[in-house]
Design goal:
- The chain has 242 residues and is mainly α.
- It has helices at 7-37, 42-45, 54-59, 61-75, 88-93, 95-125, 155-176, 184-192, 197-205, 208-238; strands at residues 129-130, 144-145.
- It folds into 2 domains: 1-87, no CATH class; 96-242, no CATH class.
- The chain has a two-stranded antiparallel ribbon.
- The longest helix is centred in the N-terminal third of the chain and has 31 residues, at 7-37.
- The protein is elongated and about 60 Å long.
Length: 242
């Protein structure tokens, strides 16, 4: 327990949680905004078309507070969830709009990942940041300030925050696009192919047990997707970008 509460661990936790909460809030806010633009005000009336995390925390305190804290101290990184309400009758009437709403969350994560990649790439190319030694490389430590910056410099939390922003949002983008209920990818498939694959997706989504199975299957196959994609991201980052 003392190791978990060490200042360095609490420092890393604070940065992780700020980036995690922003990424999750942007993801759900993007869903809510896309739904409103498509004609469904359900999430808007619930106050979720916002980058303020409080409405999302109030809706899902377990997924936005308790699970991220527990997963960080027991696994070293954060996982959790939030949700955006929508009118299912609206989704049935406008399947393409539902697909756009489902895709908006991962698109928001892709935007954050691209911003993190760009900032890290610029700072690495400028020599402000350097590539860590291989034994110190991790998803929260993709770059570090050069030796001219003192340990107390703000460049150190900036390097960690940008590293987490890139890693976490690539993960959220890829994972949520898997076409398995209850993930966003299933909503995209359902909206684009409502009369074929969408019928299968809908049958699975209405069964809570199948949603649990979907998550378990997604975790099993995710490493086969994330690892090669993230290796390409790192290769581009350390070679100066595309």
């Amino acid at each position: 327990m003392e190791e978990m509460l060490a200042p360095s661990m609490l420092y890393e936790f604070a940065i992780w949680y700020l980036v995690f909460l922003f990424s999750l809030t942007l993801h759900e806010g993007a869903h809510a905004l896309a739904a409103r633009l498509g004609g469904d005000d359900t999430a808007y009336l619930g106050g979720q078309v916002t980058l303020n995390p409080l409405p999302h925390i109030q809706r899902e305190p377990l997924g936005t507070v308790l699970m991220p804290i527990a997963s960080f101290f027991f696994a070293g990184w954060m996982m959790g969830w939030a949700s955006t309400p929508y009118d299912p009758h609206w989704a049935q009437r406008h399947p393409r709009r539902q697909a756009a709403m489902s895709a908006a969350g991962p698109a928001g994560n892709l935007l954050v990942a691209a911003a993190g990649f760009t900032a890290l790439s610029l700072l690495l190319n400028a020599g402000t940041f350097v590539v860590p030694h291989l034994d110190g490389l991790s998803i929260s430590h993709l770059a570090e300030p050069n030796a001219s910056y003192a340990p107390g410099s703000l460049m150190h939390p900036l390097a960690m925050g940008l590293s987490i922003a890139l890693s976490l949002n690539v993960l959220l983008f890829l994972f949520n696009l898997l076409p398995l209920p209850p993930l966003d990818g299933s909503g995209v498939v359902h909206g684009l192919f409502p009369d074929s694959a969408g019928r299968v997706i809908e049958a699975l989504r209405t069964n809570p047990m199948m949603s649990i199975v979907g998550l378990l299957v997604a975790w099993q196959v995710f490493d086969y997707i994330f690892d090669p994609v993230f290796r390409v991201v790192l290769r581009l980052l350390y070679s100066g970008g595309p």
